[in-house]
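Q: What does the assembled structure look like for these inputs?
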Amino acid sequence: MTLEQFAVFVGSSLRLATPLLFGATGEIVSEKAGVLNMSVEGMMLTAAFGGAYGSLVSGSAAVGLVIGIVSVVPVALLQAFLSNTLRVNQIVSGIGINILALGATTLAYREIFGARSSQLVDGFSTWVPPLLGQIPVIGRPIFEQVWIFYLAVALFVLVALGLKYTALGLALRAVGVDPKAANHAGISVTLVRYGAVTFAGLCSALGGVFISLGNIHTFTEGMTSGAGYLAITAVIFGNWRVWRMVGACLLFGAATALQFQLSPLGIEVPTAFLIMLPYVLAFVAVTGLVGRQTPPAALTLPFHAGK
Amino acid sequence: MSANAISPAGPSMWQSLIRNEIAVAFAAVLGALIVGLLLIVMIGVPLSDAIGAFLDGAVGSGYAIAASINRAAVFAAVGLGFIFANQANLTNVGGEGQIAMGGIAAAAVALKTPVADLPVGLAFMVPMLAAVIAGAVWGGICGVLKVKVGTNEVISSLLLTFIGIWLLYWSVQSTDLLRQPMTNTATLPETLEIPDATKLPALLDVAGPLNIGLVFVVFLAVIIQLALHQGVLGLRLRAAGLNELASRRAGIPYDRYVVLAMAVAGGFGGFAGAIMLQGDQYVLKDGFTSGYGFDGLVVGLLARGSSIGVVLGALFFGFLRSGGINMEMTAQVPSAVVVIIQGLVIIAIAASGYWLSRNEGKR
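A:
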């Protein structure tokens, strides 16, 4: 592999990791607050559709981005309402929402796009950062990315620092570890969790819009194809630590990128193995072979004030 | 607790109605169906056309009924496994992967061993048994992880689902595994058809494809009902699920019951894969699992621990799916409408648990 080929590989790994990074950044906030938000997939898919629709009718990817984000708000509020107010089993509500989102986006796509289904819509433009982009040979292949890739990086850094160093981050973690004590300390567990799930929804929305407008510039049925589940997997694989989680996203992105890189190099690895790899790695992680898993203590446990 | 003191009058009719779980399930399904009908109106297909096509596909002919029931048998198998594990407060979301593993095992045994030469009954029973074992291992792993390292079974069974689905994909992509020999470039990535002797016998010749999967499932439903509600096994599973420490103190081998519960749930998933392969599809290919594992999960949830509930729910979804497919083919109603109905049913049923438990608290 030449240096340039390697740079192309790194660039495409970063691109493929972007939706996972968005989804996982939101998911870790939600899980740190004690809510296993299983509906990342449905949220991404909704936003992918909303984004493509917005771009189709307005001709502008920026409008698409706004509509994609707005379209996820009701989904996020539904998830928050089910898991916090109604205390529904979080897995079940997530799966229900994912199925609903798949059905709703497929139906809306058929009805709205219909005959125009193969039409490309306005997508995001790429951006080459100064200095980094000027590195000879590897600069452009690696750093020339759709601009919201850099938004993903910035968002992640903010969340990582915010969780660790701010009062809000502390409150959030407290709610996820010991909601009762947090409640006694005057933190509204319900409010924090609603906020966390909504934030997860907004992050997932960015990931979803990235999938439809950042890359393919159109919508196809079920186009997120498991990216949301992979984002959740990255959080688990990262053992609920932000930096390990980023590592997981990059690893999963690289595994996907390898599918396109290995064959031209004459290396025959079954595609199925590469697609399966992230799940196998995550599974190995949860078996405790690479250190004990330490999820937030109150993860998936609904909070019952006054009980 | 204090609600009774405030309202000394007996529970209103509304309360007793909502307390009735069957009524809740019925209301959820009815509400979702109404939404479905509204969607059909919105997309501009005449309701009579849509409903006509739906009924045609679901119950319009002997063939349609048989196909719906075969499908229902698959959902019921997964659902029965789900309620068994759920008795111990375990949530098996791995039905889809267990179906995949069952399908792989049944196909491998049917195609790669001389099992077709066995006497008639054994020829289809052996692959089926292999499928049950494969599914049980896939589910049992989650139980072992739960008791050994405390891994949440939801997370492990979900990850194993993805692994199972891609293993199936792999096994039909590679001629070293189960893919049919490549005779030309157009050879599809799927297995050969399994030998006739390994296919499930038909239950009734007149009714088209109705196979004996149904008989197995009804039998299993009775067994599960008895096991969960009549004997000591059900009580012990429940005790283990309610309180690990207390059940251990009471001498119940908690670890063993958790592994057993997940292995049984997985075994039922594997069995579902076997009847899909041997009763209906006959070849293994990508997409074999068809989302039936998730449908079965929904059926199990709806049933709230009752075998009869599983069978009724499975029949409902079996007919719903068949009708939905025909609506898409003949009335141009996207089958996504059916997917939406399913999603709504899951959410509504799950949400209704809140009111059910609140009313129980008041009693």
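Residues 7 and 138 of chain A are 5 Å apart (CA to CA).
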